[in-house]
Amino acid sequence: QVQLVESGGGLVQAGGSLRLSCAASGSIFSINAMGWYRQAPGKQRELVAITSGGNTNYADSVKGRFTISRDNAKNTVYLQMNSLKPEDTAVYYCKLNSRVGSVNYNYWGQGTQVTVSS
């Protein structure tokens, strides 16, 4: 099994910054991608940023403000969030995609709350 532990969420004023971390442990055979998603109250979970094979992709709403990075030696992915806005308020989830042969496995963290006050 694979465990994902997130940290770094909290309460911040608009314009501030936070850095989220997600450490993966357990039976990790091959990491295809790691990413961050978020879910605001009453809304569907949405992709924020993802990194795979050195490539990164961001939701349009966070481009230029958020940066995803990965430490392969530590099986850890980070999300640096700058210029935070109240609309960034959500529970942020880390996701790991592992591929073994032709089979994909997806693992989720427990989520960390990010609250941005105006």
SSE topology:
Layout: E1 2-7, E2 10-13, E3 18-26, E4 31-39, E5 46-52, E6 55-58, E7 66-71, E8 76-81, E9 90-100, E10 103-108, E11 112-117
Parallel strand pairs: 2-11
Antiparallel strand pairs: 1-3, 3-8, 4-5, 4-9, 5-6, 7-8, 9-10, 9-11
What do these coordinates show?
It is a single chain. The protein is mainly β and 118 residues long. Helices cover 0% and strands 63% of the residues. The chain contains no helices and 11 strands. The chain has strands at residues 2-7, 10-13, 18-26, 31-39, 46-52, 55-58, 66-71, 76-81, 90-100, 103-108, 112-117. The strands form 2 sheets. Strands 2, 4, 5, 6, 9, 10 and 11 form a 7-stranded mixed beta sheet that branches. A 4-stranded antiparallel beta sheet has the order 1-3-8-7, with no helix packed on it. The termini are far apart. The relative contact order is 0.32. The model has no long low-confidence stretch (mean pLDDT 95).
